[in-house]
Design brief:
There is one protein chain. The chain is an all-beta fold. Strands 2, 4, 5, 6, 9, 10 and 11 form a seven-stranded mixed beta sheet that branches. A four-stranded antiparallel beta sheet has the order 1-3-8-7, with no helix packed on it. It is globular, with a radius of gyration of 14 Å. It contains no helices and eleven strands.
Length: 118
């Protein structure tokens, strides 16, 4: 599967952005999806995840501010980010994970820059 992330940009603290990650192919509904981010000088960190059944989980740092969702008809996963803080500045990546009989496979998108000014 190929993933294309979009929706990043420059926003003031307290503002909102919605990231999108579009997947190729016709098996999107079989993938668990996640968002990760990487700030300069930091390791990539997990932000949020949504299962094939729609269950969601969030990192403590974004809980209550970010919402992950998916639209299987559009092969797209979203990350609605509200009440943004300067510390949310990072490149955001989407990830697709599928479990098969042969093992678990994951795929990454190319990343989209989010910059939050104070």
């Amino acid at each position: 599967v190929q993933l294309q992330a979009s929706g990043g940009g420059l926003v003031q603290a307290g503002g909102s952005l919605r990231l999108s990650c579009a997947a190729s192919g016709n098996t999107f509904s079989r993938y668990s999806m996640g968002w990760y981010r990487q700030a300069p000088g930091n390791q990539r960190e997990w932000v949020a995840a949504i299962s094939t059944g729609g269950s969601t989980n969030y990192a403590d740092s974004v809980k209550g501010r970010f919402t992950i969702s998916r639209d299987n008809a559009k092969n797209t996963v979203y990350l609605q980010m509200n009440s943004l803080k300067p510390e949310d500045t990072a490149v955001y990546y989407c990830k697709a994970i599928i479990a098969t009989m042969r093992g678990e496979y994951d795929y990454w998108g190319q990343g989209t820059q989010v910059t939050v000014s104070s």
